[in-house]
Specification:
There is one protein chain. Helix content is about 60%, strand content about 25%. By secondary structure, the protein is of the alpha+beta class. Among the domains are: about 45-85 and about 90-130 and about 300-335, no CATH class; about 265-300 and about 340-460, Outer membrane efflux proteins (OEP), CATH 1.20.1600.10. A six-stranded antiparallel β-sheet has the order 2-3-4-5-7-8, with no helix packed on it. Helix 5 (about 265-275) crosses helix 7 (about 345-410) and helix 7 (about 345-410) packs antiparallel against helix 8 (about 415-450). The longest helix is centred in the middle third of the chain and has 67 residues, at about 135-200. It starts with a strand and ends with a strand.
């Protein structure tokens, strides 16, 4: 199979499209968005039509006034049409209702049947008073839930970016180690050939050839071990990305060292202004305040006002139901007055206030954690810059030293054991430089996640 070479950006994009956590996060975001849409739709006018084509009732009962048993039969058909409009500002409801009915009634006591049509058209207002606005509170909660789901989705994306980046660079380190071990193996082959030629010419003792063979076998073993570690890292990386485990892959990365200017105070300010966890803590505080409102209303003094005004008419002919209409006004005012609850409401309020204070403390703790983590990452970046400069110089020195001692070995002034030591030193310095460069890249990513500002490209993460 052809080998596929991936960059870090391509790897992150692949993972975002295949990650189960991201898929669930997006579905959760969709669910909260639709719940909010549904609540907003619930605040619009509702049209309803209820139809009962037939209703039959036959009952026998005792009439106290006439001291006589009576059988009554009813055949009814009716329809009710209503338009209901919630009032978001006051939590009330205004509705227009129309009930049209046909009744066929027979009473044994009267010995006669009555067939009539009736229609009841009325406008009604129901308004709670002295209590909180439940519709508005529920709408605000759903808006916060959607915002929180959006934050969780963004945090999942950042977490996935961190995991992919770490796995990507781990794969690259193993890939780089294999390349270094291959270079070392090739150098050992050159050294072995030189030693063999010198032994054949009786310029070196045969023991030097044995040592050269041992060095060559050791470098080959190291190269094979690095190949195994690379294959294992490739499987882990492919599993994280969700790609075919049988696909041959390699990674391509530019880890050239370029110092990034990072101002500590600016980084901390970015973190405090942009970190989504802080907004989540504020959402928790708002939710605690909502719970406080609900708890307070459990045993609260509250009331309700109900007003309706309509016109009613009945007639044996449907078209003449309003020949002699009746006006039907209705007014009702009710109150719910708590008297004694044995301290239940006070205890629940204290519990809710305690939860609110906990949320406020968590917010302050989160702020301090952000500041401390940014400071630690900043110090680590400063330290890594120094380490990279030293590691680069060490590689240059180790390469010069190896080249010089290789010439000495060719001239017979150095043993193969000493040359192997210089070769190992060069390999170690190359690995140390690659590790330092990768660690610097990862710390830059950590700072990006901690501040939501990309110092590598000098731009904010979220607009």
């Amino acid at each position: 199979m052809a080998q596929r070479t991936l960059t870090l950006e391509e790897s992150i994009q692949i993972a975002q499209n295949s990650s189960p956590d991201i898929k669930k996060s997006r579905l959760n975001l969709l669910s909260n968005r639709k719940s909010l849409d549904a609540q907003r739709a619930a605040l619009k006018s509702k049209f309803a039509l209820d139809i009962t084509p037939i209703e039959y009732n036959r009952a026998r009962g005792f009439n106290d006034l006439f001291s006589q048993w009576n059988t009554n039969e009813d055949y009814n058909s009716y329809a009710n049409f209503s338009v209901s409009q919630p009032i978001a500002a006051t939590d009330g409801t205004i509705s227009l209702n129309n009930r049209f009915m046909y009744r066929d009634n027979y009473s044994e006591f009267q010995g006669a049947a009555t067939r009539t049509y009736s229609n009841n058209l009325y406008l009604q207002l129901d308004q709670p008073i002295f209590t909180y606005n439940r519709n508005k509170l529920q709408l605000k909660e759903l808006e916060l839930n959607l915002e929180n789901a959006h934050i969780n989705n963004e945090m999942q994306l950042l977490t996935l970016e961190r995991n992919v980046t770490q796995s990507f660079y781990s794969f690259y380190q193993n890939q780089n180690n294999l390349e270094i071990s291959r270079d070392e193996f090739e150098n050992q082959q050159v050294s072995y050939e030189i030693t063999q030629n010198k032994v054949d010419a009786d310029l070196l003792a045969k023991e030097e050839l044995y040592q050269a063979e041992l060095n060559l076998a050791t470098s080959k073993s190291t190269m094979e071990n690095n190949q195994v570690m690379l294959d294992n890292a490739a499987d882990d990386f492919k599993l994280l990305l969700g790609i075919d485990l049988n696909e041959a892959i390699a990674v391509e990365v530019d880890i050239n060292f370029i110092t990034r200017e990072v101002d500590l105070n600016q980084a901390i300010q970015y973190g405090l202004d942009n970190r989504m966890e802080l907004r989540q803590r504020n959402i928790e505080i708002e939710r605690s305040q909502f719970e406080l409102i609900r708890t307070k209303s459990l045993n609260e003094f509250k009331g309700a006002v109900s007003l309706s005004l309509g016109v009613f008419g009945d007639n044996k002919k449907a078209v003449e139901v309003y020949q002699t209409p009746d006006i039907n006004p209705r007014v009702a005012v009710s109150f719910s007055i708590p008297i004694w609850d044995w301290g239940e409401n006070r205890a629940r309020m204290q519990a809710s206030n305690a939860n609110l204070e906990i949320s406020k403390i968590d917010l302050e703790v989160q702020k301090n954690d952000i500041i401390i983590n940014i400071r630690k990452t900043y110090r680590s970046l400063q330290n890594l810059e120094n380490q990279i400069e030293i590691a680069e110089q060490n590689v240059k020195n180790a390469k010069r030293t190896y080249d010089i001692n290789l010439e000495r070995y060719k001239n017979g002034d150095l043993t193969s054991i000493d040359l192997n030591r210089f070769q190992s030193q060069l390999s170690d310095k190359k690995s140390a430089l690659a590790d330092a460069l990768i660690n610097y890249k990862i710390e830059l990513l950590n700072l990006k996640i901690l501040t939501l500002y990309d110092f590598e490209n000098q731009q904010p993460v979220m607009n």
